[in-house]
Design goal:
Elements: H1 2-16, E1 19-20, E2 26-27, E3 33-35, E4 39-41, E5 45-47, E6 59-76, E7 90-108, E8 112-117, E9 123-125, E10 165-170, E11 176-178, E12 187-192, E13 198-200, E14 210-215, E15 221-223, E16 234-235, E17 239-240, E18 246-251, E19 258-260, E20 269-274, H2 277-282, E21 291-293, E22 303-308, E23 313-315, E24 318-320, E25 324-327, E26 335-337, E27 340-342, E28 346-351, E29 354-359, E30 362-364, E31 368-373, H3 383-387, E32 393-398, E33 401-403, E34 407-411, E35 415-420, E36 423-425, E37 429-433, E38 438-443, E39 485-486, E40 489-490, E41 497-503, E42 508-526, E43 528-529, E44 535-546, E45 552-562, E46 565-566, E47 572-573, E48 579-587, E49 592-598, H4 609-617, E50 622-626, H5 629-634, E51 646-667, E52 670-675, E53 678-683, E54 696-715, E55 722-728
Parallel strand pairs: 1-3, 2-4, 3-6, 4-6, 5-6, 6-7, 7-8, 7-9, 8-10, 9-11, 10-12, 11-13, 12-14, 13-15, 14-18, 15-19, 18-20, 19-21, 20-22, 21-23, 22-25, 23-26, 24-27, 25-28, 26-29, 27-30, 28-31, 29-32, 30-33, 31-34, 32-35, 33-36, 34-37, 35-38
Antiparallel strand pairs: 16-17, 39-40, 41-42, 42-44, 42-45, 43-44, 45-48, 46-47, 49-50, 49-51, 51-54, 51-55, 52-53, 52-54
Length: about 725
């Protein structure tokens, strides 16, 4: 009997987990398969339910010197495609081995598309890891939600995995990643401890976090990649935060990497480099000797390029229409040469920089071209400031050309500056110096200067054969106006959208009809009247009249016919096939009253709940009112209100149609939300607030008619945030 039982157990194991060992055959996948030899997979769509663990996958690969050709097969982890924030698990794990090639693979519906750890000689090519995990964004057109901020400052324990990834690599040297696509996710290719790799000809665009991320990774070449629209935290004309999104992110001791011929436009930061916590603590190391050559970093809401606490070269790049072209805080021995700056608020801004060269650049049509400064009274509160010379000192600014720049130089608290042979034309303010600038040499600079070209600033990084043209095509809409953030990330132009351009004081709503070329018509409309047209073309426009006297509950349904469409969740519609989409707007006319309280050790919320309840029932030290909770809260600090050890109670009556609603709250430290005195959302444990997203909580409730909303909030520290969202739950496709 024992032998029979052992045979049965072995049979069950083999049914659930089996190994492919034959070569030159086509196999169908089954959940739990372990592939250990070269194989071609039978092309089909494989639906495998994802698991809660990121370290388990329906497909596992291990072995040496093998090629797995997935032959265009799709590994799909979720049928709930409209809820990518619910995706969990990993699609494919490369568990062990070396010299492994993966090609022609499609993975979607997981937290991580493909994960590999400790695999040397890994090649991933011609594969698609789009439509995997991304967070639901709480920021909207009018208002930023601070809980949407990301942090990539640590990844020793795979902290980056909380944001998911199309491809996640750790300790994989000599990796070749080429001709892959990752769009409509949060993070594209994320690399930790990966050296001597080649990443080229990929398209990692339209993600809500990072295109390519590196951590402790050196001697890699990142060439000819499309890394556009990796962005969040932006609303044109209202706020431009970026929320630590970037086309390329380079953190913590990444050295000698080459980034060349990439398009990195319309991203939170185009290129975001930070030396790392090791350098902050010890003053040692940095992200040094990286080369940025012939890239386009234009249209960043924040910085086209951020280079901090490190030594690098930035040569022959394009940086147009950013807040800062280059933010170079505490950079040293850095060369910025032969770059094309235009239309930036400030092209080069460096605080506490040392021994830097700014040479042979072109600056056109900017508010300020070069800003250099330091703060002599800055406290030395971390290791880098204590162990390094952080004076603003020793700059060479030569052979640059400035055209139609309002302010060319803005320099203070800086020593030893050579400004020589720079041509300035059409500038209303050539220089702004003060008495804090010492040892300044200003020579041969003006409208008659003739800058010289030093070819030594033109490195020749090794390219590749057949590197793709990464520049945005001529017909592509360009500029920060076209960073159009949806609740799932940046709009990708692959499907039609009715984008609200503005609403005037009379309630007229102007919509831009954007997307692939075609025609639209209104199928139904709720909450608006007087459409300027019931049909039109894409691109085009539409004006409707909204009601300014009551709750805005707008739902306009359109039907589009025209070019092929790919929806935000990856659904495909053929040319001429009807595609329906909506313009929706739901705005509750709140009347908030916020009562302010100050607590101490006798009635603090964590240790003395009963006394804290008595405090909230008593006389407030201040009362504020307004239609927007975040504004009422933000403006409440002031007289009689410290930013620490405060509590608030905010109430408002709402009147909404019957339906299912998402209640979202983002708050500093501790919050409870009640509807008609029933607790519906609670986030009352500050010890669990580790990341920005932890400050937000959601609940789904049924509402109908009049309700009283009460929000109780408390904070020990001075971090202030309170933002409530109530939105209908729409059935998405």
């Amino acid at each position: 009997m024992k032998n029979i039982r052992k045979i049965c157990i072995l049979f069950v194991v083999l049914l659930n987990v089996f190994t492919l060992k034959a070569q030159d055959r086509t196999f169908s996948l089954r959940k739990g398969v372990i592939i250990s030899h070269s194989v071609i997979i039978k092309k089909k769509v494989y639906h495998f339910n994802h698991t809660d663990s990121l370290y388990q996958a329906p497909v596992v690969i291990e072995g040496d010197n093998i090629t797995v050709d997935f032959n265009g097969s799709v590994i799909d982890g979720s049928l709930e495609t409209a809820y990518p924030d619910r995706f969990t698990g990993t699609g494919v794990i490369i568990k062990s081995g070396k010299n492994i090639t993966i090609r022609n693979l499609i993975v979607k519906g997981f937290k991580v598309g493909l994960m590999a750890k400790g695999i040397n000689g890994l090649t991933i090519s011609n594969s698609d890891f789009s439509y995997n995990f991304r967070q639901h964004l709480n920021s909207n057109r009018e208002r930023e939600d601070l809980a949407d901020w990301q942090s990539y400052h640590h990844n020793e324990k795979d902290e980056w995995l909380r944001f998911g990834a199309g491809i996640y690599l750790r300790n994989c040297d000599s990796t070749d990643v080429h001709d892959n696509t990752i769009i409509e996710g949060q993070c594209g290719l994320m690399m930790t401890g990966c050296n001597r790799g080649l990443i080229y000809n990929n398209n990692f665009s339209f993600n809500s976090g990072i295109g390519i991320g590196m951590y402790q990774s050196s001697n890699n070449r990142v060439l000819y990649n499309k890394l556009d629209w990796n962005v969040r935290g932006f609303s044109d004309g209202i706020y431009y935060r970026g929320q630590d999104s970037a086309g390329i992110l380079v953190f913590e001791q990444c050295d000698n990497n080459i980034f060349a011929w990439n398009s990195v436009t319309h991203s939170g930061d185009g290129f975001f480099l930070w030396a790392g916590q090791t350098t902050m603590d010890t003053g040692d190391g940095g992200c040094n000797d990286n080369l940025l050559f012939s890239n386009d970093f234009s249209y960043a809401p924040t910085n086209g390029v951020e280079l901090t606490f490190s030594r690098n070269k930035m040569i022959n790049n394009i940086i147009h229409d950013c807040w800062h072209g280059v933010w170079g805080g505490f950079s040293y021995n850095t060369i910025i040469a032969n770059n094309d700056f235009a239309g930036n608020m400030s092209s080069i801004a460096i605080e506490h920089g040392k021994d830097n060269i700014i040479d042979q650049n072109h600056f056109t049509g900017e508010k300020t071209s070069i800003e250099l400064w330091s703060n002599p009274k800055r406290p030395k509160d971390f290791g880098y400031l204590q162990k390094r010379d952080t004076r603003s000192i020793n700059y060479s600014i030569r052979n640059n050309a400035f055209t139609d720049v309002k302010n060319v130089f803005n320099i203070n608290n800086t020593d030893k500056v050579l400004i020589e042979n720079n041509k300035i034309s059409g500038s209303s303010l050539q220089q702004k110096f003060d008495t804090t600038v010492n040892d300044l040499e200003f020579d041969k600079t003006g409208d008659r200067a003739k800058p010289t070209i030093d070819s030594g600033y033109f490195p020749k990084p090794a390219g590749i054969t057949n590197g793709q043209n990464t520049r945005l095509p001529g017909g592509q809409l360009q500029g920060k106006k076209y960073i159009m953030m949806t609740q799932w990330g940046p709009y990708s132009f692959k499907y039609p959208i009715a984008w609200r351009n503005k609403t005037d004081s009379s309630g007229k709503i102007s919509l831009d009809m954007a997307g692939p070329t075609g025609k639209w018509k209104i199928i139904s409309a709720k909450g608006v009247t007087q459409p300027s047209s019931t049909s039109g073309t894409v691109p085009g426009s539409l004006i409707v009249q909204g009601d300014t006297t009551a709750l805005a509950d707008i739902d306009i349904q359109f039907e589009y016919t025209g070019e092929a469409v790919t929806s935000t969740f990856g659904a495909k519609y053929k040319t001429g096939q009807p595609y329906r989409f909506h313009y929706r707007q739901f705005d509750i006319p709140y009347k908030w009253e916020t009562k302010w309280f100050v607590f101490d050790t006798t009635n603090e919320p964590l240790k003395n709940e009963a006394k804290f309840r008595q405090l909230l029932a008593g006389q407030p030290v201040k009362t504020t009112q307004g239609p927007d909770l975040s504004t009422v809260f933000g403006k409440g600090f002031g007289k009689n209100i410290a930013r620490e050890k405060i509590a608030t109670v905010s109430t408002s009556v709402i009147n909404v149609p019957q339906g299912l609603y998402r209640i979202g709250i983002s708050a500093s430290e501790m919050v409870r939300v009640y509807i008609d005195d029933k607790l519906v959302v609670e986030n009352w444990d500050p010890s669990k607030l580790i990341y920005d997203a932890d400050y937000h909580r959601d609940a789904v409730v049924t509402l109908k008619g009049l309700h009283t909303i009460r929000v109780e909030q408390a904070q020990y520290s001075d971090y202030g945030m309170l933002n409530l969202i109530i939105q209908p739950v729409y059935k998405e496709k």
